[in-house]
Specification:
The structure holds two protein chains of two kinds. Chain A has a domain of about 220 residues. Chain A is mainly α. The model of chain A has no long low-confidence stretch (mean pLDDT about 90). Chain A has a two-stranded antiparallel sheet with strand order 1-2. Chain A contains 20 helices and two strands. Chain B is mainly alpha-helical. Helix content of chain B is about 65%, strand content about 0%. In chain B, helix 2 runs antiparallel to helix 3. Chain B starts with 6 loop residues before the first helix and ends in a 5-residue tail after the last helix. Classes of the chains: A mainly alpha, B mainly alpha. At the A-B interface, helix 5 and helix 6 of A face helix 1, helix 2 and helix 3 of B.
Chain lengths: ~500, ~120
Amino acid sequence: MTLAHLPALVVVVPLITAPVTLILRRPAAAWALATGACAFSFIAALLLVAEVAAHGTISYHMGSWAPPWGIEYRVDILNAFVLVLVSAVAAVAMPYAWRSVAAELPRDQVYLFYTMYCLCVAGLLGMTITGDAFNLFVFMEIASLSSYVLIALGRDRRALLAAFQYLILGTIGATFFVIGVGLLYLITGTLNLADMATRLVSVQGSRPELAALAFITVGVSLKLALFPLHLWLPNAYAYAPSVVTAFLAATATKVSVYVLLRFYFSIFGVQLVGGMLPMPEVLLGLSLIAIVTASLVALWQTDLKRLLAYSSVAQIGYITLGLSMVSRDGLTASVVHLFNHGITKGALFLLVGGIALRAGRPGFERLRGLGRSMPVTSLGIVIAGLSLIGVPGTAGFISKWYLVLGAIELGRWWLAAFVVATSLIAVAYVWRFVEAAYLSEPGGQTPAPGEPPPIMLIPAWLMVAACVYFGFDTSFSVGTARDAAALMLGVSP
Amino acid sequence: MTFASHYSYWVTIVLMVAGLYIVIARGNLVKKLVGLSIFQTSVYLLYIAPGKLIGGTAPIVAEGFRVYSNPLPHVLILTAIVVGVATLALGLAIVVRVREAYGSIEEDEILAADRDGEGGA
């Protein structure tokens, strides 16, 4: 019987855990509960994706109120896939958090960290699973408010300013989104996404609908850090505690991409977004600029964490590049890269957190000779770095492969060449780490030999292993993404 | 369609643009939050105003009442107000911490302090 309630439980369990950890106050108890909740969500998400793959879309009626009156949780292959990504990263990061958080936060704030972490997980999962536009906004704010707090917990005082900037821009983004939803509600009189989609067909291309599309696009683009709305991201990632950076980089922007995909293809429809409006061209242009400029800026960073943050902006460019193709291969690339980049960046930031534990800020002058003093960590960063570049045999290659396929299918050979050429910039910035870690003599600031504790290394290496695994066995990642792309375009899989 | 018939929309737009302008143009962190609140308030109006019908009653099934005002926007905005209050509270809390860490809440002074003390604190 509980299986039928999985769509609700996957969100409710971390949501309820949050206040319980707040009451418990004991760090160990809070950690254990939060770990249990994240692990539960992960298992529930896996069960959901299996159920959806076998029997099709699940519609869960909150409190047995039938949609469109009640709130509907709707799980299809696209959001089941995103649920797996979010809950997997949340669960893997928890064992890691035990040592990392204890080292980076004052002891009396540790239990508060777990409270906020659970809220953030619940918010992101809720955004993904809900089938109700206003419910989505509320979960978006739950996730955002908790992530502002998590970022502000960083040791550096600049974390406060980064959190404040993110709060301002994030709130503007969410408010734009809710203005868009309000306009759609005024047109259709419904907040249920599926119901909204059917009612919008009769007014397709009307001015309020276009205004709603514009507001939602800008609002969600702020959240997903699409160039030039990415200004909050580098500082937020650079100064947040290590676990927070790894978790947010792997999930928060990805869930926002999902929201954009959902609104574009399930609500406004491919005819409006892909045919009547120049949205593909706009997204294409912004994606290209994002990839080139953010990659180049990443090259000049003096700090590995900031470098990876700028690289995230570039990688989001690849995801929106796939979206802008509005084709089966393009959307497959987009969804696959959402997943592959999530695990790659998660792995990288977890490993960098290990360096931060031993060396403080991961500035390049402290990474000199790291290949000898922290060989396991360095090797992990190199492997995940290869996935970031898109070397064959890693997950990153699979995404680039589908991007190139999509570009060729549209006859845009220059775009295929562009994807390959920009990967070379990624080679350059990953090389900067290799050069510092393996080809430089240890300097005075290099940490003493020794790895971070196994409880931090093992989760990080799990993610590194996933980067390699999904480079060879693509039946889950690509298979699911292709089905999701077919679903979005409304063709049979 | 006259100016007066869309009165609430004009108010909404003025509040929206004014709020956003304050957020962008002011360097004082508290003033930025004030602007943000005004911006969010405009959305409350955007939702609530169209729900009201002149002569409409509460949505009760009874003899003699045909027109009613839509109660759903009120419920939605009640939630949005809670979100807005939480955002403002969190924003102010961060401003307090910023003041403790930097001794200022002016954006340019804070950025200057970070440039001088690169890698500090």
